[in-house]
Amino acid sequence: MMDKQLKRLFCFTVILFAALAAMLTWYQFFRAKELWAHPFNPRRASLGKSVLRGGFYDRTGEPLTVYTKDGTGIGRNYLLNSLAHVIGYADPRYGTAGLESAFDSELSGSITAIELENVIAAVTGRSKAGADITLTIDRRIQEVAAATLAGRRGAVIVMDPLNGDILAMVSNPGFDPNNINKDWFWIAKDER
């Protein structure tokens, strides 16, 4: 009787471990890209501490983001809070959102042309670098649209009727992507 129960327990344990191994294999080989690309994957954004992420520029070449380098690694500084909904954020704890998420491969230097440069950078001791992204946004028009909407709820979109370029996008209420750690509770709580 005891041998029969031990055999059942042994079989159950083997089946359980086989199922666990099958599930881990499935995730490792078939869903790895999907899990890596998920915006809430903090590992993607944490790579930004060792990689000089590409910057965002407006249509005239004015910077919309700049990088900072200190003892803890490489950080990101967003110059216009009114573009927070568009550009989003890249944070080691909260992952990526907005254009930071959509263009993560290019910004982090994980597309093939940049990968070779990053291998050379690793060998020579330079910082790895991602590609820059130029938007159709015009910084001056963006600032005027943000000032027009200041203190009110709503959204403003300014488009060029000749070619459909988006020159400005503002949404209120907004958030400061430079203080994502401090403001995360309020951002996550807001159901809008």
CATH class: Alpha Beta
Mean model confidence by pLDDT: 81
**Alpha-beta classification:** alpha/beta
Q: In one word, what is the shape?
A: elongated
Largest sheet: 2 strands, parallel
CATH architecture group name: Alpha-Beta Complex
User: What's the β-strand tally?
Assistant: 10
What does this entry look like structurally?
The protein is elongated, with a radius of gyration of 23 Å. Helix content is 45%, strand content 20%. The protein is α/β, with parallel strands linked by helices and 192 residues long. It is built from nine helices and ten strands. The N and C termini lie far apart (62 Å). It has one domain (42-189): Penicillin-binding protein 2a (Domain 2), CATH 3.90.1310.
Topology:
Layout: H1 2-30, H2 32-37, H3 42-46, E1 51-52, E2 56-57, E3 65-70, E4 73-78, H4 84-87, E5 89-91, E6 95-97, H5 99-102, H6 104-108, H7 112-124, E7 128-129, E8 133-134, H8 139-149, E9 154-159, E10 166-172, H9 180-189
Q: Which keywords apply here?
A:
Penicillin-binding protein 2a (Domain 2); two-stranded parallel ribbon; 192 residues; 9 helices; two-stranded parallel sheet; alpha/beta
